[in-house]
Structures are given as structure tokens and as C-alpha cells.
DNA sequence: GGCGGAATCCGTGGCAGCACCCATCCCGGA
DNA sequence: TCCGGGATGGGTGCTGCCACGGATTCCGCC
């Protein structure tokens, strides 16, 4: 009998060493084949244009275009392509954002290699994959929020707010940001206040860590 | 003729997926064998105690004990063991700190898999390994500093200062830090000022990014 | 056509971050 | 022995962060 064709995978991560390792893991499975590698989100989109891709495995934090941004664009341009996001961080905020960005799965880099392979297969079977660690963490978080009567998924930042977060996390002052964006200092402060409220944070250091987790800037 | 025995490697990285990939890369070389894996610096030290290790490949940023801290301890306890530090970041500051911590090599995760293998071999031959990207960057930096008549290697933080950096980067206020360390707020501010001067930085957001790069905290 | 949300701007005010000056104590190395 | 550096504490003052109130415009959606 004929076996089903191997899943054609696009792999994107900004670290060549990690890319190579993950590729070895995936290629050792007969039903998974990495057909293209990208070092950032923009390159991933370009490669997705010229290659026939079944599945894109994208690191969340990449220069130029983050994995989340690339996922949004990719799912818009070719909805048939499945997307799996790789993340360093176990954070429900990003998990929900990943789903919103069109990803079918979200896998932590801290998990074992078997889980990644299983996630690829689950996503190709059109089953959403949730890694077990996230499942418990998400359920705990969900139950806590429901118990406190909060609306659950939490807030996402607008494009403008994301822009401001990026600049704040780069260490720019409000005045500098105002000059760069050609808006008033007060508006920058208003944005910052809204962002801090949305993310339930207190100051710029926490925003900096958020921006790094989200892949908006590099440490 | 008998071939030389394979190098016994301890591999430490907090991401199981990365660990697995790097292990595949190393194990595919006949002269390199990963005999133990650790998920953080403390576990790495414990494993180095019970295994016969020729070479430790340590990620710089790990929870509990960072790769730099583990390297310091490991080179003190068993100077014969070679140490190779893996880093996400191309930063001369960390490069020098790595050497000071007793490492024989410093490899970026952005480099190709061949370079890691070559670095392992070079280190085992007692040749210090410097990846080409760093070489040019370090030389450029070096020449700039010499041209400006500065003392070159730059400053390293004291243990106390490192402690303060960690708390600042976690988003604590000066008052909170003072309470935690049972010192005056003024002393915290004095430490912060010294740290900012040493690292040639401006504010807490940059310190936050520094702490993440150094593996003192997780994003 | 109203309604909500995003983006823009303004004022007031407190407190913290940060700069620059100062001092003391202790310890280890020249 | 003295010197230097680290850790500690203090004073003064400016600037910027951040909270709190308000406002307008525009746009898309029901």
C-alpha cells in the first residue's frame, strides 16, 4: 500500500544552531520533511511563497518580523498552510495571541523532542495541539480569572501600542518616542498608561521583559 | 591503529528541545559523545560530580545557576574539564566574562552546527576557539577602545551589584530592594549608579535587558 | 445613525529614578 | 603601613515616570 506523502515543513528560527537541531529531530521522522529554513519572519514569508509548504514551524521571537507577525501574514495569505509556533516562554498571554494569529499549535522549547513531533502530526490532522504544561497552566489561570469574575482572554495591544511598547523597551524616553512618532509627549504617556493597564503591569522594566517575550525586541 | 577515545560531553541548556537538537548534532560526530544532560546550572554541577566529563557545553542563560556561574564553579572544582559557553548574544561584555569564568570557548547559537563541532574539537586541543563573527566584532571594539585611550576589557560587576541588578530587572523599586537586602534606599541608589556607570547604561530598561542577556533572570 | 474603540491631546500632581556631591568602614594587596 | 576598592549611608535637586482626571476626531460595525 502507498503511504501518505511526507509533510513539507518550513522551519524558521533566528539561531542556526537551534534550526539545525530541530531539523535533525523532524527529519528523523519519515512523515516529516523540512524543505526550507528561514532565519527571520520576513525570510519565512518569502520562502513560503516559492515553496509548497504544508506546515510552518515558526519561532515566536525573531528579528525583522516576529513569528507572531509572520503567522498573521501567512495565515492571511495561504489559510491552508498549518502553523505551529515555538516559544521559549510559558505564558498564556502569548498562547492566546498565537491562536489569534492563526496558529494551530503552540509548543514550548522546554518540552521534549517527542512533543514537537506529536504536535506537528496533531496539527496536520487538524487537531489543535496544546502541550500538557500549558494545559494545566491555562486551566489554572482560567479558573482563577473566572473565580474573580474577570473577562478571560485578556487584552491584546493595538498596532500603535505595540509600536510604543517596542520603543519603551528599547530604553527610549517619552520625549524621544514622541519625537520619533511625531506625536505629543502626553499621547505617548497616554499610550503607556493604557498599555500598562491592559497588561496589568507597573513600570517600564516589566514592559521590557514583555517586549522580549513577545519577540518585539532582542535583549 | 586505535583511534583516540571519544570526548565525553556534559550538555546543559534549559530548553529540552534545544538540548535534544544539539545532542543530535554532537552525537553524529564519532569523536564527540554527550554522556549527560542538565536543565540548569546547578544540575550541571551535580552531574559533573558523578560523571567523568571531558568537556562541558553550557548555555549562558539558565535558571537557578547561570552558565557563567556554573562555569566559574566548575573550573574551580575541576580545572581539567574544558568549558564551552553557548550564548544567544553577540556581546563582547559576555565574551570577556566567559573567559574570566574559566571558559575555553564561546559560541553563538546563531552560528552553524559545523562551527559548534569545530569549537568542541579546538577546545579539546587546548586551542581557544573564537567564532569568526566575534573575532571581527571584538577587534573592532578593541581598536575603538584603544583609539579612545580607554582601558579595554571593561568592568565586571561585584557579587552585591549583580544581586541588585537582578532585583532591579525584576521590576522592584529601590525601596523594595532596600527592604529585601536590609540596607538603605540610598545605598541601593548608589549601587545602581555604580552599575549604570560600569555598564555605560542609562536606565533600568537597559539593565533589564542586560540581566536577561546575562541569564540573571528570565524574561 | 448611534455606539464603541482607537488615536490623538491637555492639566495636575506625587513620587521615583537618576546625577552629583559628600562621608565612613572594612579588607586585602602592594 | 598605606592605599584602593567595595559596601555602606547621606544631602540636594532635576527630570521623567506614572496616576488621575478630562477632551476631540475618526472609523468601522450593528
Automatic annotation (TrEMBL), chains A, B:
Keywords: DNA-binding, Phosphoprotein, Transcription, Transcription regulation. The modification 4-aspartylphosphate is found at residue 59. This is Two component transcriptional regulator, LuxR family. Residues 8-124 form the Response regulatory domain. One of its GO terms (molecular function) is DNA binding. The keyword Phosphoprotein applies. The keyword tRNA processing does not apply. PROSITE patterns: HTH_LUXR_1, HTH_LUXR_2, RESPONSE_REGULATORY. One of its GO terms (biological process) is phosphorelay signal transduction system. Residues 150-215 form the HTH luxR-type domain. It comes from Geodermatophilus obscurus. PANTHER family: TRANSCRIPTIONAL REGULATORY PROTEIN NARL-RELATED, TWO-COMPONENT RESPONSE REGULATOR. It comes from the Bacteria.
Amino acid at each position: 500500500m502507498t503511504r501518505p506523502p511526507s509533510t513539507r515543513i518550513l522551519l524558521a528560527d533566528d539561531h542556526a544552531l537551534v534550526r539545525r537541531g530541530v531539523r535533525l529531530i523532524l527529519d528523523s521522522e519519515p512523515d516529516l520533511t523540512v524543505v526550507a529554513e528561514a532565519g527571520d519572519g520576513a525570510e519565512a514569508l518569502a520562502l513560503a511563497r516559492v515553496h509548497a509548504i504544508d506546515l510552518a514551524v515558526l519561532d515566536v521571537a525573531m528579528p525583522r518580523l516576529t513569528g507572531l507577525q509572520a503567522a498573521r501574514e501567512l495565515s492571511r495569505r495561504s489559510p491552508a498552510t498549518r502553523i505551529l509556533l515555538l516559544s521559549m516562554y510559558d505564558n498564556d498571554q502569548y498562547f492566546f495571541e498565537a491562536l489569534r494569529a492563526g496558529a494551530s499549535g503552540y509548543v514550548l522549547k522546554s518540552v521534549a523532542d517527542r512533543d514537537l513531533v506529536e504536535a506537528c502530526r496533531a496539527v496536520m490532522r487538524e487537531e489543535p495541539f496544546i502541550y500538557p504544561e500549558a494545559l494545566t497552566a491555562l486551566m489554572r489561570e482560567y479558573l482563577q480569572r473566572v473565580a474573580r469574575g474577570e473577562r478571560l482572554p485578556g487584552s491584546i495591544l493595538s498596532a500603535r501600542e505595540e509600536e510604543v511598547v517596542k520603543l519603551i523597551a528599547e530604553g527610549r524616553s517619552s520625549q524621544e518616542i514622541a519625537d520619533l512618532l511625531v506625536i505629543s509627549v502626553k499621547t505617548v504617556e497616554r499610550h503607556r498608561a493604557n498599555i500598562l493597564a491592559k497588561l496589568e503591569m507597573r513600570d517600564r522594566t516589566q514592559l521590557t521583559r514583555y517586549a522580549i517575550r513577545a519577540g518585539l525586541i532582542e535583549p
